[in-house]
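User: I'm putting together a small comparison set for a docking exercise, and I want a reference complex before I start. The sequence is below, and the ligand is NAP. Could you produce the 3D structure with the ligand included, as structure tokens?
Assistant: Of course. I'll restate your input first, then give the structure tokens for the complex.
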Amino acid sequence: LALLGCGTVGRAFVALAAAKDAELRARYGVRPRFTGGLTRAAPGWIAPDGMAAIDLLASGWPASGTIPPGANAFGAADGSVAGARFAATCPADVVIELTPLDPLTGEPATGHVRAALAAGRQVVTANKGPIAHAYRELRALARERGVALRFESTVLDGTPIFNLAEFSLPATRVDGFRGPLNSTSNFVLGAMAGGRSSEEAVADAQAAGIAEANPAYDLDGWDASVKATVLANVLMDADLRPADVARVELGAAAMRAALAALPPGHTLKQMVEAHRAPDGSVRAEVRLKALASDDPLAHLTGMETAIQLRTDTMGDLTIIEGAGGPGQTAFGVLADVLAIARGLGAPDLPIREEDHP
Ligand SMILES: NC(=O)c1ccc[n+]([C@@H]2O[C@H](COP(=O)([O-])OP(=O)(O)OC[C@H]3O[C@@H](n4cnc5c(N)ncnc54)[C@H](OP(=O)(O)O)[C@@H]3O)[C@@H](O)[C@H]2O)c1
């Protein structure tokens, strides 16, 4: 395994792999070995023989500022971050892409994933950017090279959504989905419904470490739009970009107005909804919705998030995530790595005729 980006999620993943090492070996015959790591600021490294998670953890990289014992330095002579070169050349079966999300361009993560797949490496990522901006291209490249591209942790941390659809919903068509996918917005709405001002509620979320310094990305629906794009592209074979998702009457002022107009017995949520239009296209939107008390999604509180899939086999399936975070995200990465180690395929659900003439 090679780590391209090792911040909050990367460190949680290494710790989880170390904690589960004996169990992975006993139950699956799998023992992950880390053969490379690259971040922006810490020195990069490669170790062709690899090291166990416990040894990588003990080395303190990347916080230590030095490469792990026994590894060779990897870097560009001019000090630039050579992510794509690392992805293509590091001696790894699986490249784990965990660099920050750029919701507008999906870069540099998309370039990293493309380079890894083109070099015949399997890829696991928690980064929504490549799936929101280039899923079809990357899926085609993965198929052509016969490798997996897995991304369970891109939506609702490690909550099984894509793995559920791939492994547990065979021969199923997803006709739509809905859910409060942005935990910060719904935390803020819950606090405002309890009497806090929007400014106080945002400050509460920031103090709890769950909101960005700039809360507009959450409250204005951009985070939800990127997630909706990933879900629609993967589960419904759409070809959306985040800007194609309608963002309707969002933000702090709209939240105040909608709460003031909320019918009795209802709960306000920032909701993502997607459906297939009569012409076959997929439409997705983010808006504030008043949910009646018989709606299972009305009862989520605090940081809880959920998704409801509308399927032709199982009707509506609802999955709720309690408070998520890096530990859950790391679990999704581990689940993807294990699926690859066990020889399971890429989550490209619809097998289309043009791919099998
Ligand atoms: N945190 C979560 O619970 C969560 C949940 C779901 C999805 N995700 C996604 O998972 C990914 C990682 O999240 P995170 O919270 O771990 O982020 P993070 O703490 O900011 O870590 C990002 C890592 O990427 C490195 N990096 C930045 N630019 C790079 C570049 N150009 N080339 C190589 N490495 C680079 C950083 O290095 P420096 O530290 O040296 O800058 C750092 O090691 C993101 O895409 C995020 O959206 C996170």
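The pocket of NAP is lined by residues 4-10, 38-42, 81, 83, 98-101, 108, 126-127, 153, 157, 325-326, 329 (CB under 6 Å). Residues 347-353 have pLDDT under 50 and may be disordered.
User: Thanks, that's exactly what I needed.
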